[in-house]
Design brief:
It is built from 10 helices and 6 strands. With about 325 residues, the protein is of the alpha+beta class. The strands form 2 sheets. The chain has a 4-stranded antiparallel sheet with strand order 3-4-2-5. A two-stranded parallel ribbon has the order 1-6. It is elongated.
């Protein structure tokens, strides 16, 4: 029986030859992402900006000019309309203002009532209402969630590995997060709790891949005591390359249907995941590993030699 192999069982790719190019490219993309965060900025969704989101299905293809005119006449703020799925399905966004939470609910009821009066057989399939106070709290909670995730991962890596592994992992994750922010700024996908969920998922996915490489690196440090660290890191990445590619490909392929057929609610998460999988996988090879190499071979060798001596010493 023939088996499909994306990579050979044994590879000998000199990844560390491109370490400076990888670090420079990553730094450039992260700096560009920070600039994009300020201009043009993120397209904050209803979760973080407040407002009303309605998913509506009409009996016949929607007349966007007439619908926009009817909603604009309600004087509830800026209206955004988006077709999705079919010409009968419309996503209505009414951006938040300084209205209180109760006023937002009243505005949503008014829109629902006007739609039912104007269009016979209209089906309002989903309604989300977020007031200004709640949106501010959600934004703060999202930032806290990302910060706590990074802190927890840093503590875990610090206790499981040596300090330079923890530092390299944390710096790499910060670079990954900035690139994710840049992705949302470029694509102008709605940035809300769904986007934060995608970032948190990618943080976990990315660190899992780095732990696999770090484990093999630490194992090889004990096994090949005289091998230069640069060669040892290349060996460790090549040893885990097949696992890394298969894991990334299966997750990537699972996200593709969600990204293009999962609807507006799932699309943001799935597209963020597709980009994050690529970023997280490549950063394990071209960012996290070179950062460990930059900490110096002598310190790692001295630590491993001491551990081996202590283990082999007679009781």
């Amino acid at each position: 029986m023939m088996h499909l192999r994306l990579v050979p069982e044994k590879t000998n790719i000199k990844f560390m030859k491109g370490r400076f190019a990888g670090l420079a490219t990553s730094a450039f993309l992260s700096i560009a992402s920070i600039i994009l965060f300020f201009y043009p900025g993120l397209n904050y969704g209803i979760d973080f900006k407040g407002g009303i989101l309605m998913e509506v299905r009409f009996e016949r293809p929607a007349d966007f000019p007439a619908l926009r005119g009817m909603l604009g006449g309600l004087d509830l703020g800026e209206v955004a309309l988006q077709e999705f799925g079919s010409p009968r399905d419309v996503l209505i966004r009414l951006e938040g203002s300084n209205r209180a939470d109760e006023a937002e609910n009243s505005a949503a009821n008014l829109v629902r009532s006007e739609l039912s009066k104007t269009y016979s057989g209209v089906e309002i399939r989903r309604v989300e209402v977020v007031g200004g106070k709640i949106s501010a709290e959600l934004f703060e909670s999202g930032l806290i969630a990302v910060g706590l995730a990074l802190l927890g991962i840093a503590i875990y890596i610090w206790f499981r590995f040596e300090w330079m592994f923890a530092l390299a992992a944390l710096v790499t994750l910060l670079l990954d997060i900035t690139k994710m922010i840049g992705f949302f700024a470029v694509t102008q996908l709605p940035f809300g709790l769904t986007a934060v969920a995608a970032i948190l998922t990618i943080i976990g996915y990315s660190i899992n891949d780095k732990v696999v490489v770090y484990d093999r690196m630490r194992e090889n440090l004990r096994k090949y005591k005289q091998m230069p660290l640069r060669e040892l890191i290349d060996l460790s990445i090549n040893d885990t390359l097949s696992r890394t590619i298969f894991t990334s490909m299966t997750t990537f392929l699972a996200m593709i249907p969600l990204a293009f057929m999962g609807g507006e609610a799932v699309e943001v998460f799935a597209l963020g995941m597709l980009f994050g999988i690529f970023v997280g996988t490549s950063s394990s090879v071209f960012i996290a590993a070179p950062l460990v190499l930059l900490t110096g071979e002598k310190w790692l060798r001295r630590t491993k030699t001491a551990e081996t001596t202590a283990t082999s010493a007679p009781a």
